[in-house]
Inverse folding.
């Protein structure tokens, strides 16, 4: 049996979680105050994922706004975050950009898209 300590990121309470593992299987989760903590702990030790947020350069904005904020449309595996940032680092898009516009498809070969989270006209 192996014990792993985590802090839940489900809400600002940040409950301290203890996960008991037997090889790759979760035996029990303790320390959570609500079911979201249990679900988070199980996912975090087996297949940790995250939403990624960043910015992408914009050319041609009539308001001289040089970047647009972006995010992944869903969680991607934690070990793909660096590849994801590399994939979008050198991108430049042309204004106008609307919230929800797809900026990059299949980022870092995760099957997940990058979309704009603000309007840039
Ligand atoms: S276990 Fe529930 S109450 Fe505790 S930090 Fe996670 S989401 Fe918040």
């Amino acid at each position: 049996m192996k014990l792993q300590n985590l802090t839940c990121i489900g809400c600002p309470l940040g409950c301290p979680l203890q996960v008991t593992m037997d090889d790759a299987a979760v035996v029990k989760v303790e320390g959570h105050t609500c079911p979201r903590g249990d679900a988070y702990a199980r996912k975090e030790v087996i297949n940790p994922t995250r939403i990624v947020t960043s910015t992408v350069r914009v050319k041609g904005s009539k308001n001289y706004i040089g970047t647009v904020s972006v995010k992944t449309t869903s969680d991607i595996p934690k070990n793909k975050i660096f590849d994801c940032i590399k994939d979008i680092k050198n991108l430049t898009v042309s204004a106008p950009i609307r919230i929800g516009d797809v900026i990059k498809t299949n980022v870092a070969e995760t099957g997940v898209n990058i979309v704009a989270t603000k309007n840039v006209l």
